[in-house]
Each structure stands twice: as C-alpha cells, then as structure tokens.
Design brief:
three-stranded mixed sheet, Alpha-lytic protease prodomain-like, mainly alpha, Alpha-Beta Plaits, 2 domains, 307 residues, 8 helices, 3 strands
Length: 307
C-alpha cells in the first residue's frame, strides 16, 4: 500500500516560497541601484587617472550590476508555479543565476590578468592619481561594505543562493577597492610604477576565489546532492506516533524549497484511513521542522515481528 503526499506539500511551502522570492527581488533591486552609483564613480576616476587597477575595480562592480539583473530575471522565472513540464517547480533558475555569477567572474578575472600582464611586459604611462581618486574609491568601499553586510543578512534570512553569491561578490569588491587604495599609496610613496599592474593581478585572484566559492555552493544543488541527513529525517519520522520504521529516505534542494521522500512502516492493524492519517502527520511535521516545500510519504506494513 502506498500513500503520496504531493498534494499537501505545496500547500505548506508555496505561500512562504512566494513571499521569499518577492523579498529577494526587492533586495536585488535595492542592491542594483547602489551598484550603478558605485560603477559610475569608479569609471569616472578610472578613466580620469588611467589606472587599470581602478578600471578593473569598476569592471568588477559592473559584474555586480549584471549579477543583479540576471538574478532579478531568474527570480521571476523561479516564481512560476509547477507545471506539467516542471512538476518540481522552477526553483533551480535561482541556482542557475548564481552559477552565471561565477561565469561572469571568470570573464572579469581573465580580462584583468590580460591587461595587467600586458602592462608589465610592454610598459605604459603610470596612472595620474589625484586626491579625488582616493576620496571616491574610499566612499565606494564604504557603500559596498554596507551593501555586502545587508545582502548577506538577507541571504541567511531568506535562504537565497543568489543573494549569498552576490553578497560574496560584493564583499570581494570591498577587498578589491581596499587593495587598489593600498596600491595607490605604494605608487605615491615609493614611485613604484609597476604597482598598478601587480595590483590588478591581485584583484584578479580575489575575483577567482570569489567565483570558486560560488561554484562550491551551487553545484551540489544542481546535481541534487542530498539536502538533509537521512538519519535526521528518520529520527523525526520515528518520533511520530504510529510509525514503526522508515526506509528509502531521499531529499534534495535548498532549505525552504527542498523535496523529501520516504517510506514509513506501520502496524498491520492500521486501516487505509488510519495509515493515511499517520502519513499526513509525517508529511506535515517533516515539512514544518525541516523546511521542505514538499514531502512525499509512502506507507508499507511493518514486519510481523514489530507489528
């Protein structure tokens, strides 16, 4: 005998999921506005000074804005309800958006390395650093720091991969700008003309590290790595009255939007109705306690020795 709880899961998780995605979109819109202001400021001082490190910093911020736009588009797609072709919903569009962030970062890294190595090999005029350059970069660093802090808090509260990925990228932007300011100081104090190119290489390494961190978080979701330890699900199910045992426990997805499936074993004396009620209770408790959007429970009779 089998009992499926697919109909009950969405009724538990969908309202919460819809509200979460709406909040994620609002955060991304706010962050996009801040990033556009920072990009404009960095481009201005980068073009004015001729510093490839500053222009690389502006490009890094530009990827932040692209990330926001990709994230907004992905969240709109992810908000679509399940359909015949996507019975598990469209939540992985958010994960794909986070993966796209890593792709954009790799392009930024390559361009920075190419420009830096070219200047080291062929040389070039040193950048013209003015007090305005330092002031604008310092202000941009403060803005990015506030954005990264707020976005990171929102990513934890909303369990959002795209916000977490973007917050990591924005945090790396703070480090990049700080490194650029250090390089400017070295050029000013020691008249070190190669500092700008070397600093651009350091910026590229920071960008690469940020992209690697995103890959480590997104790939497990895309390949359906288990979302929860089966032992934890087994322990919770076993605590529910009427459950004599569990088997075939599987789970996948991110917190708040994941899916779980398991088989429970009940006593032979249970009727179809009572077994159905036990399964419903297992679905409800596991979905609520472990933040699954959908829980499917199958029912089988327990072994005679335990019945």
């Amino acid at each position: 005998m089998g009992q499926t709880g697919a109909a009950e899961g969405p009724s538990i998780g969908m309202p919460r999921t819809s509200a979460r995605r709406g909040e994620v979109r609002r955060v991304l819109t706010w962050v996009l506005g801040a990033n556009l202001a920072v990009i404009a400021a960095k481009l201005y001082v980068g073009l004015r000074s001729g510093s490839i490190a500053v222009l690389g910093d502006a490009a890094h911020s530009g990827i932040d804005a692209v990330n926001n736009l990709v994230g907004l588009a992905a969240m709109r797609l992810a908000a679509a309800p399940p359909d015949d072709e996507h019975p598990y919903g469209h939540g992985k569009f958010e994960t794909l958006a986070a993966l796209a962030v890593a792709g954009f970062l790799s392009i930024t890294c390559f361009e920075l390395l190419q420009g830096a190595v070219g200047r080291l090999v062929t040389g070039g005029a040193p950048p013209n650093i003015e007090p305005l350059t330092i002031g604008v970069l310092a202000g941009a660093m403060v803005v990015n720091g506030a954005v990264a802090w707020g976005e990171n808090r929102a990513s934890k509260r909303l369990s959002s991969e795209i916000l977490a990925a973007d917050a990591r990228h924005t945090a790396s932007d703070v480090l990049v700008t700080a490194a650029v300011l250090v390089g400017i100081a070295l050029m000013a104090v020691f008249d070190w003309e190669s500092a700008d190119a070397i600093l651009a290489i350091v910026v590229a390494l920071v960008v690469a590290r940020s992209g690697y961190g995103i890959l480590r978080e997104t790939i497990p979701v895309l390949v359906d790595e288990r979302a929860m330890d089966p032992a934890a699900i087994e322990s919770l199910a076993a605590s529910i009255e009427g459950v004599r045992g569990t088997s075939q426990i599987r789970s996948r997805g991110r917190p708040g939007e994941g899916f779980a499936e398991l088989t429970i074993h009940v006593a032979h004396r249970e009727t179809v109705v009572s077994a159905h009620e036990i399964a419903d209770e297992v679905e409800r408790i596991i979905a609520a306690e472990m933040e699954f959007a959908d829980v499917t429970v199958h029912v089988e009779p327990a072994a005679e020795s335990s019945g």
